[in-house]
From TrEMBL:
GO terms for cellular component: cytosol. The keyword ATP-binding applies. It catalyses: L-threonyl-[protein] + ATP = O-phospho-L-threonyl-[protein] + ADP + H(+); L-seryl-[protein] + ATP = O-phospho-L-seryl-[protein] + ADP + H(+). SUPFAM superfamilies: Protein kinase-like (PK-like) (SSF56112). Keywords: ATP-binding, Kinase, Nucleotide-binding, Serine/threonine-protein kinase, Transferase. One of its GO terms (molecular function) is protein serine/threonine kinase activity. The lineage of its organism: Eukaryota, Fungi, Dikarya, Basidiomycota, Agaricomycotina. It is an enzyme of class 2 (transferase). Its EC number is 2.7.11.1. This is non-specific serine/threonine protein kinase. SMART domains: S_TKc. Residues 43-58 have a biased composition (Basic and acidic residues). Belongs to the protein kinase superfamily.
């Protein structure tokens, strides 16, 4: 089987690309974009408004499986084939559908504290995300508010609250340029809401614009690496790194989001690392050992996922649907072409 390589220690050979980039539309369309000069920030804003922003986008379901999930996604096709379909992973089959509406009392409570409710950004197994905007006199700040999914049948209130507060505690502890900031958590009428900073552009849309030149791809890749390195230094693994969980600000800063499946692999004062278990993540981004081993190093699986993101940015498609040589011919071809990466199963 192919196994992701161990994380490398810090070295002097890290990328030195500038952290800011403007997607100015000079990239190629055949998987090998042509380098282009970086334009002004206004060029990026104009491009994003023309090619990415949608005043009335449809809510997009995002797969966020639970840490205990033990199955992979099922195949799903779209009648209109496009490059976007090649990059969009399938959703977790049988995932619970969150309640789409917010209780009026809760709306009023959050509106009083943060501002006026806006459109729904998307929904998934973990909950629904919606915008909220402060009034002009209060600065006009826009936040993203996640309403956590309802308590499941058979799930105790204690278990439910533990899962909700765990995600908030993880998010609120992280302080890094390339990690989304968690501002607040609100509990009202049995519903839980996480208030976060809002980054208006998702990396998937930026990649699918087909306008990223190589230096811009490297810049984005470096920022993702910085965010993941920060998590790993804290002893935390994300476990669901993918294009959909990377967003971008108007200043071209890339940020990792959604820590609902994060796990602690190293505790302060301990020399040993705790392996991860279970199949967590989205099929195309999974490391092979996540499927083939009962336990694995979550750092390595994170790094594998980051590498898949890099391939997606360059190719604008997934290299394979799932890293299983028995069921995926593309991955089988990769394994056969690189026997040096194949190791015997333990």
């Amino acid at each position: 089987m192919v196994q992701s390589q161990p994380p490398s220690p810090k070295s002097e050979h890290r990328f030195r690309f500038p952290r800011k980039s403007s997607f100015n539309g000079n990239g190629g369309h055949n998987g090998s974009p042509t380098p282009a000069k970086h334009g002004a920030l206004s060029d990026l804003k104009r491009f994003l408004n023309q090619h990415i922003h949608d005043d009335n986008p449809k809510p997009r379901k995002v797969r966020t499986p639970s840490p205990g999930a033990s199955s992979t996604t099922s195949s799903r096709s779209s009648p209109a084939a496009s490059n976007a379909n090649l990059l969009r992973p399938n959703h977790l089959s049988g995932a619970a559908t969150p309640t789409p509406s917010l209780q009026e009392a809760t709306q009023a409570h959050l509106s009083k504290k943060y501002g006026k409710w806006g459109r729904v950004l998307g929904s998934g197994a973990g909950g629904t995300v919606r915008l909220i905007k402060a009034s002009a006199k209060n600065g006009g700040t826009i936040f993203a508010v996640k309403e956590f999914r309802p308590k499941r049948t058979g799930e105790s209130e204690k278990e439910y609250q533990k899962k909700v507060t765990a995600e908030f505690c993880v998010g609120s502890t992280l302080k890094h340029t390339n990690i989304i900031e968690t501002v607040d958590i609100v509990s009202d009428h049995g519903h839980y809401y996480e208030v976060m900073e809002y980054a208006p552009y998702d990396l998937f849309s930026v990649v699918m614009s087909e306008r990223m030149c190589r230096p811009e791809i490297y810049c984005v890749f470096r920022q993702i690496c910085d965010g993941v390195e920060y998590l790993h230094e804290l002893g935390l693994a994300h476990r669901d790194i993918k294009l959909d969980n990377c967003v971008m600000t108007t200043d071209n800063v890339v940020k990792l989001i959604d820590f609902g499946t994060a796990t602690v692999f190293h505790y302060p004062g301990k020399s040993s690392h705790t392996p991860a278990t279970g199949i967590v993540g989205s099929d195309p981004y999974l490391a092979p050992e996540v499927l083939s081993q009962d336990s694995y190093d979550p750092r390595k699986s994170d790094i594998w996922s980051v590498a898949i993101i890099f391939l997606c940015m360059v190719l604008r498609r997934f290299p394979w649907k799932i890293p299983d040589p028995k069921s995926d011919p593309s991955f089988r071809a990769f394994v056969n072409a690189h026997p040096d990466l194949t190791v015997a199963r333990p």
